[in-house]
Amino acid sequence: MKITKVETVYDGFYKLRKLTVQDGDQQLTRERFEPGRAVAALVYDTNAQQYVFVRQFRIGAEAEVEEIPAGMLDKQGEAPEQALRREIEEELGYAEVHHLEHIVDMYPSPGGNAEQIGVYYAEVSQQTSAGGGAEGENENISLVRLSWEEMVTHPWRDAKTLIAVQWAQLNKV
User: Fold this and answer.
1) Domain range spanning residue 24?
2) What does the record give as the reaction this protein catalyses (predicted)?
3) Do 62 and 97 sit in the same domain of this protein?
4) Which helix (H) or strand (E) holds 87?
5) Other beta carbons within 10 Å of 76
6) Would you state the pLDDT for residue 118?
7) Across the chain, which distance is largest between two alpha carbons, in Å?
8) Within the chain, which residues score under 50 in pLDDT?
9) CB count in 10 Å sphere of residue 41
10) What pLDDT, on the 0 to 100 scale, is given for residue 135?
11) Short-list 79, 126, 118, CA closest to 101
12) Most buried of 92, 99, 159, 172 (most Cβ within 10 A)?
């Protein structure tokens, strides 16, 4: 298969592109949702000995979802680790990350979605603000603190969070 043409169908908060794909003698049209690159982290507060998650309304689920903190790379050329530290401070209120470990770069749903997410493990120890999201982003985030036992038995519905929690179980962090 070879992509022969890409057209922008919608360019708003997210992008939607129409692709023309050559498959042998056939020419196919496919749509691709392009939210961009994101980062997310399983965050462990070493002082409280708890994992820190967020709960926020997600439009795709049409409900509040508990998940690891995440965000988009905002600027062209922004390093994933830099974006992740920013998101941890905005969403959780921790200004300093003591340990950051890359878990995986993944496509959560590559059938028609071009989003890429870098998933990490982060350790923090001193909350310096309440968190809750950056002003002006209308995130309405609340923090959820869980023990190891609560985390591994929680009924997670978010794919990046499932991956991070399973990684923690395999690596005993």
Assistant:
1) 2-32
2) GDP-alpha-D-mannose + H2O = alpha-D-mannose 1-phosphate + GMP + 2 H(+)
3) yes
4) helix 80-92
5) 5
6) 97
7) 62
8) none
9) 31
10) 75
11) 118
12) 92
